[in-house]
From TrEMBL:
This is Undecaprenyl-diphosphatase. The lineage of its organism: Bacteria, Pseudomonadati, Pseudomonadota, Gammaproteobacteria, Moraxellales. One of its GO terms (cellular component) is plasma membrane. PANTHER family: UNDECAPRENYL-DIPHOSPHATASE. InterPro entries: UppP.
Length: 274
């Protein structure tokens, strides 16, 4: 067993857990971390980057189990809040499922690189700044208050997250805020919306690339990343909910812009940090 490889997988898990629900692009950070550490072969690393996100989303299911169970059963029992949330999540998930199944592999082949990540980070950063400086009137304080129309719009905005560097959480949170959803409700809806998208993408990628992981060590490396991402994401979720109750996302916007510019600088100059 290669202990160094397992250590790198654990570091990747920490990166995933910390970045998955922040508006700074988890996929972008994982791609960069993979290149920085020379983590695995590119073929295995690309699958790992997608599959590892299932650990982070498992943390959401664990943390919000009662509300999610209420949403799932509410669609059949007729309980109003649960039914509304359940159908809202289904409607918001449809666009990215359709686009992802159609163009997902093409996006991965063309845009899983540092330049695309940098551009996505910078553009997203400026959008966050604009929204924070021009906050729309809030018309939905809680997740259960989000209308079906708003849910569908959030789902369409989420499609942008297929582009590395854009950030799924960033797109859905900022998009929801633009539609008049409170910061807390937008953040929680983003948590919930990631469940079908991330689990579906992870399982599909593993199915399509089943021959990539051929040994027990390969699966051990993947399992390590998923477990570590679960633990670190659970800590991050609780911290983020407390954070958004009192603060805005400006710090993440400037972080995105600075990171993107730094990536472009190193990409175009050929300089190396390692």
């Amino acid at each position: 067993m290669d202990l160094i490889l397992l250590l790198k997988a654990a570091i990747m898990g920490i990166v995933e857990g910390i970045t998955e629900f922040l508006p700074i692009s988890s996929t972008g950070h994982l791609i960069l971390a993979s290149e920085l550490m020379n983590f695995w072969t590119k073929e295995k690393s690309d699958v790992f980057v997608i599959a590892i996100q299932m650990g982070a989303i498992a943390a959401v299911i664990y943390e919000y189990w009662s509300r999610l169970w209420g949403a799932a059963t509410g669609m059949f029992t007729g309980e109003v809040k649960g039914r509304h949330l359940g159908f809202s999540l289904i409607m918001a998930s449809i666009p990215i499922v359709l686009v992802g199944l159609t163009f997902g592999q093409a996006v991965k082949d063309l845009l899983f690189n540092d330049i695309a990540v940098a551009i996505g980070l910078i553009v997203g950063g400026f959008i966050i700044i604009w929204i924070e400086k021009h906050p729309p009137k809030v018309n939905a304080q809680e997740v259960e208050n989000i209308s079906y129309k708003e849910a569908m719009w959030i789902g369409l905005i989420q499609v942008l997250s297929l582009i590395p560097g854009t950030s799924r959480s960033g797109a859905t949170i900022i998009g929801a805020m633009f539609l008049g959803i409170s910061r807390k409700a937008a953040t929680e809806f983003s948590f919930f919306l990631g469940i079908p998208v991330i689990i579906g993408a992870g399982l599909l990628d593993l199915y399509q690339s089943y021959d990539v992981f051929k040994t027990t060590e390969d699966w051990s490396v993947l399992a390590t990343g998923i477990i570590v991402s679960f633990v670190s994401a659970l800590i991050l979720i609780r911290a983020l909910v407390a954070y958004v109750a009192k603060r805005d996302f400006m710090i993440f916007a400037w972080y995105r812009i600075a990171s993107g510019l730094l990536i472009l600088l190193f990409a175009f100059t050929g300089w190396k940090l390692w």
